[in-house]
Amino acid sequence: MKATMVKLNSLKLTFALGFISLCLIGCGSTSSPKSQAQSNRAPLVQVEEQPILEQSPDYYLDEAQRLYAQSQDEMVRNQWLLRAAEAYKQQQGCQQSKKILQISLPFIQDSSLRNQAHIILAECLLQTPTLDENLFEQYLSQIDPNISHQNRATQLKIAWQMRKGRWLNAAKSMLSIYDGTPIQSEQIWYALQRLPTESLQTASLQSSGLAPWLQLSLIIREYGFEPDALKLAISEWQSRYNEHTLSVFLPQEVSLALNLVPLKQQRTGILLPLTGRLAAQGLAIKEGVLAAYFQQKKPLQFQPSGSDNLGEMEYPQVEFFDTNVLSIAQLVEATKSLDIVIGPLMKDTLTEFAANAPRSLNIIGLNRIEQTITEATLDDISPPQEFVDDTLSDETDVPGLRVFFALSPEDEAVQLAQKVASTGARSPIVISQETGAAKRMADTFIMTWKQIADKDSGEPSLATYIDNKSMRSSLTSLLDVEQSRQRIRQLESVTSNQLHAVPRNRRDIDAIILFATPEQTELLNPIVEASLSPFNDKTVPVYASSRSYSQNFSNNSLRDLRNITFTDMPWMLPGHNFMLLQQESEEIWPGRDDTLKRLFALGFDAFSLVDDLPSLVTLPQLSKAGLTGKLSVDQQGNVNRVLPFGKITEQDVILIAMD
């Protein structure tokens, strides 16, 4: 029965559209004096910002036909057609809305109705799984909020600005339609939280209308890790803006931050593979944890001992557990009374451990899992009986903090795409190994580029290789160098004169991105330099990830890699704030492998996060400088890293910037 009704409605719409088409085509260009006069009358239906449509779309289509047949009034007809399109959109029938508007829009002359038509089309486009950005921008260019529908037009503009990461502009647009409601205040707040501190400071000097939001944002950035100072600063801010909506209705995370309780850190457990094939990696992380522990070591309290009334300091305990020796059940049992756990390292082990550990246990996982374990999902998990603790009731425990800290290659690819796009590049090419982490990074780069690049930018071309032999052919083919050589050979074959020719590469390429190992990059970069024509009027920059860099490069290697810009953690670059720690590390572990150096930094940062974990989880806009990058925690519980960039010169590496 339902299918029959859908078919009948579809047939009715088709019939109505056919009737409308005939009317529009027949009357659109040769209106009678009567219809021209009537088209200048005030409309019978008032144009509303967001009309409340209680009837079905068919009703409005029928009215459009009936009223036009009676009066030949095009203005009235078009108003009812737009109401039908609005009704279809509100009922998730955007395809039908689009059909109506595509037929009627060429015949709509009234500017407010044309505005409304383009707004409906743009709103429908936003509902599609893959947004056609060019078409959406075309619709936006046809909308003038000064004519009509200011709120809806501005909301579309805001959606576009947010999609493009223009957060300050989005906040300003929100302010233009701000009427003091808590929801609108919150929207402005969350748009501004996406800005770095430097941008907030600049905006605070230029955007007086946003002052309440900007000032509170800067207070959070400055005092977020100091609960007492934060309370005082917010109290003073509220006294200045005591009647402002933002002051009365503080953002949820700010209210929570005012009542944070420090984590208890008496006993910390570290879960790592300390034997087996990953023992070296686990040991490097363990050494990083211990380095952080001894650097930050501070007593819990003074404990009196003995009859002579002498006392000793009690320090936090750190216990290590080998995930290659203990089962998940044993790990859960051994750690259930701890205050916080760091690890496990392997994704499968972490996923299973997090699912079965007591809900109250705080965990800093050293990998990412497919779904962050939260209170809601934990309630749905039925662990085996061996994991159930009869002495504790999960229903009464306060949920622990769960964050997931991984040195994700894909995160680097995202940041590289953002960096290259920020330079104005439009036609980058990507060179990657055909499998493994390098290929995942290449795919992530291309996907991110499609989302953030300018509309005139092309999709990055991709060249992959499987070994050193195929490396040169893949690269020269992508650069069109081989095609240029073929043309030279063809010319040589048809002339007896000696030719002096230099192969040329594609002229549209403005950035080259390499995803390769250090050894492969040493081979690739000279090929890139040799393949770029000396006749080019610009230098094509070459970018790479941390996978392409090694601190063990010789001077000869650095010369082969000159001019490459790459991203890596501060610990691997010059100019960081941990030089004494690095000196001690190199004295204890001279010539250590780059991978183990990075894992040492992971262990150091993971333990260093513990003190600030409540603030980082509660306030996602906060960040903490670490060995592995500028660290923050997103709403999914993932630790995100912002990495600096280095550039290889003839003999060394220079630090470019920390975004």
Determine the structural class based on helices, strands and strand pairing.
alpha/beta
Q: What is the CATH class name of the largest domain?
A: Alpha Beta
Spatial arrangement of strands, main beta sheet: 9-8-10-11-12-16-17
The gross shape turns out to be globular
Q: CATH superfamily of the largest domain, called what?
A: Response regulator
- Assembly type of the chains comes to single chain
Q: Judging by the overall fold, what is the CATH architecture of the largest domain?
A: 3-Layer(aba) Sandwich
Question: Low-confidence segments, ≥5 residues, pLDDT <50?
Answer: 1-11, 24-45, 372-396, 481-485, 487-492, 499-506
Query: Main sheet, how many strands, which sense, barrel?
Result: 7 strands, mixed
Q: How large a portion of the residues is in β-strands, by DSSP E?
A: 5-15%
Terminal Cα span: 60 Å
Please tell me how large the radius of gyration is.
32 Å
Could you report the average pLDDT, rounded to the nearest whole number?
Answer: 83
CATH topology of the largest domain: Rossmann fold
Summed up, the domain count is 4
The count of strands amounts to: 17
* Tally of helical runs: 28
- How helix-rich are the residues, as a percent range? 40-55%
